[in-house]
Design brief:
Layout: H1 2-17, H2 26-39, H3 48-52, H4 61-69, H5 75-85, E1 90-101, E2 111-115, E3 120-134, E4 137-145, H6 149-153, H7 155-160, H8 172-185, E5 189-195, H9 197-200, H10 203-211, E6 216-220, E7 225-227, E8 233-234, E9 249-250, E10 258-259, H11 260-265, E11 273-280, E12 283-296, E13 309-315, E14 323-328, H12 336-343, H13 348-358, H14 370-391, H15 402-419, H16 425-433
Parallel strand pairs: 1-5, 5-6
Antiparallel strand pairs: 1-3, 2-3, 3-4, 6-14, 7-10, 7-12, 8-9, 11-12, 12-13, 13-14
Length: 438
Amino acid sequence: MLRIDINRLKRLTKFLDGFAGSFVRGGQSGNALRYVRGLLSDAKRKNMEGMLQRLSDPGQYQTLQHFITHSTWDSDAIWEQLRRQVPDRRGLLLIDDTSIPKQGRESAGVVRQYCGALGKIANCQVVVTTALRAKQAVWPLSMELFMPQDWCDDEDRRERTHVPEGLQHRTKATMAIAQVDAAIASGIEVECVLADAGYGDSVEFRRSLADRGLHYAVGVSKATKVFAGDPVFAVPKSRRIGRPRSRAKLTTRSPRPQSLEQLARNMPESSWQRIVWRKGTKGPLAAEFVILRVTPAHRWHSGQMHEKVWLICERTLGKESVRKFYFSNLPASIRRKQLVATTHERWAIEQHYRDLKQETALDHFEGRSYPGLHRHMALTALAYTFLEAERQRAEDGHMLSIGAIREAVTEVVVLMLFALGERFASRAAAFIRDPPKL
């Protein structure tokens, strides 16, 4: 048992050594290892003080704090390398954002906004993320703090929290497209992009994905309007006086646009079909669906035409049924069950966020600076990626959870703390890097 644990820590050290080139100074690599081990320790709160108390080679508090908040290494370089060496190179791209509640408004990006972690409007930071869903794994690819307009316009707060000079306010959808481009640039083959209505309601977001030749399956709100039949546009005859007319208008024989809520409400009961898309831990996952081809009606008054997409209307089972709606540009030939199954793979992002927060302390950072938070997030992603890689090493077909793997690593970190102590830190590090053959 001890030998297995030692090998696991050896693999952690080797994994982090692979990122040494992203640090401009030699001591920074050691601090990165110390910080990641702190994230994987048994500290109840993974702030600087809490982590240092649970490490066998803690070093100085000021040194580790400077490494995160004021040092010169670039967290973007960590992400670039991480994307290049993710073991799986093909899969579904999960786009979403997660919130981090904060006391006060002095931390970078904090405003009163919807906080998913609390389920209400509150002071929080919002982080836009991209992850790769491949087989039974989820790999983090990008994390970036959303900066509200008020923050970007406030020079005093920008200076106090070290917000980069050239950084401007961008919508979450714009940030997400930049993260998609980064994933593609790293050589990852994207089968389909999945996102909720916070992104799917953006016409520009959907259009940007389509322009890149990417498939998507995204949530949309019930107020979104579509043409259930083929819209008919024509340019009206020009008048004798004035400029010739050039803008196409909807003709009288064309179907009119309607909201998704109206469309679903008017569907006959016989149109709803029960579909089981996969087996869950408590039985088959199923709902009722109406699936049809529609034309989005965005800016139809201006004569704008859009490509047809799949509309997936979902109605949960039971008396208190809830309707949900999705657009997808997956091929017209796709089977209904496969379309539903692909769309529902977005569930993995919620578990991913829980693991990032519960197992690698994504939301434990207490600093206020913009660079400090991004460095913390990058190192959190390294810790998570290592745990996911360890989870994939299962040889007997029984794959453990991220939490179970983290507990196994934590046991070794605690063992080092009590068995070795700070006095033998250098000897322990050498032992881990090159354990004796048993």
